[in-house]
Amino acid sequence: MMRVKRVTRVVISDVDKESEQELRSYGRRRGRKPSARQAALLREALPRFAVDPAALPEAAQTWLEIGFGGGEHLLSQARRNPHALIIGCEPYEDGVIKVLSAIESEGLKNIRVHMSDVRDMLRQLAPGSLDRAFILFPDPWPKRKHRKRRLVNSLLLDLLARVLKPNAELRIATDIGDYARTMLEAFRQEPRFVWRAEGPGDWRVQPADWVETKYEAKAAEAGRRRYYFRFLRT
Ligand SMILES: C[S@@+](CC[C@H](N)C(=O)[O-])C[C@H]1O[C@@H](n2cnc3c(N)ncnc32)[C@H](O)[C@@H]1O
């Protein structure tokens, strides 16, 4: 009896693992109807700052931010690091409008935007094309039945491992304890990454050049614990 039960559980979890692979990991793509100015930014500026993943522009460093939300971190890193070309991926139109607006008003030259699912883009990038990647507070999908939508899973690690250079850093933050645990478990099973922890409390410490995001500020205000991880591509 016991044996039958155990076998059944293994089969179900394998099916779950496969179906989790390409589910939609984001919420809405659109908020309010864009104003005329915002619609013009999407129509005219987005194609100018779009990225062709198969032919990236030359840059001393190429970084990627996945799910930049309102763009606080992306814009701040781009201002501080003009040597780095930063690709931002975000399917949410309002966030893309904010970033395009700042690129235009500040004349930022080192941002490229992909207004879609990052997984499409990762498949088209050449191997070893990225020096750094950020995934800051990916959608938490807290309900048990939605957890399979979480972006950080073994499939994403496989896609990222292919495009990150040796020694490239991948930074991830979350405010959801069980997401942090499943992330660490996925990394533990992926030999192409090592967790760059300098001590047992490392996950509590923001990296030195950290930029607080809007989601992170809300999590702090609500008193939720934040987890900060740095992984190195081996
Ligand atoms: C909870 S928000 C956090 C936004 C921002 N990083 C912050 O900390 O304020 C997660 C963001 O990830 C984006 N996202 C989710 N799945 C994605 C995917 N597959 N590719 C790119 N972005 C994604 C969502 O649209 C959303 O804006």
From TrEMBL:
Q: Name one GO cellular component term.
A: tRNA methyltransferase complex
Where do the annotations place S-adenosyl-L-methionine binding? 65, 90, 117, 139
Q: Which UniProt key words apply to this protein? A: Methyltransferase, S-adenosyl-L-methionine, Transferase, tRNA processing
* EC number in record: 2.1.1.33
Q: What InterPro entries does UniProt report for this protein, alphabetically?
A: SAM-dependent_MTases_sf, tRNA_(Gua-N-7)_MeTrfase_Trmb, tRNA_methyltr_TrmB_bact
Question: What does the entry list as the binding residues for substrate?
Answer: 143, 175, 213-216
Q: Cross-referenced Pfam families, in alphabetical order?
A: Methyltransf_4 (PF02390)
The reactions it catalyses are: guanosine(46) in tRNA + S-adenosyl-L-methionine = N(7)-methylguanosine(46) in tRNA + S-adenosyl-L-homocysteine
What job does the chain carry out? Answer: Catalyzes the formation of N(7)-methylguanine at position 46 (m7G46) in tRNA.
What does the similarity note say? Belongs to the class I-like SAM-binding methyltransferase superfamily. TrmB family.
Q: Which NCBIfam families match?
A: tRNA (guanosine(46)-N7)-methyltransferase TrmB (TIGR00091)
Q: Mind telling me what this protein is named?
A: tRNA (guanine-N(7)-)-methyltransferase
Species in which this protein is naturally found: Hyphomicrobium denitrificans 1NES1
State which gene encodes it: trmB
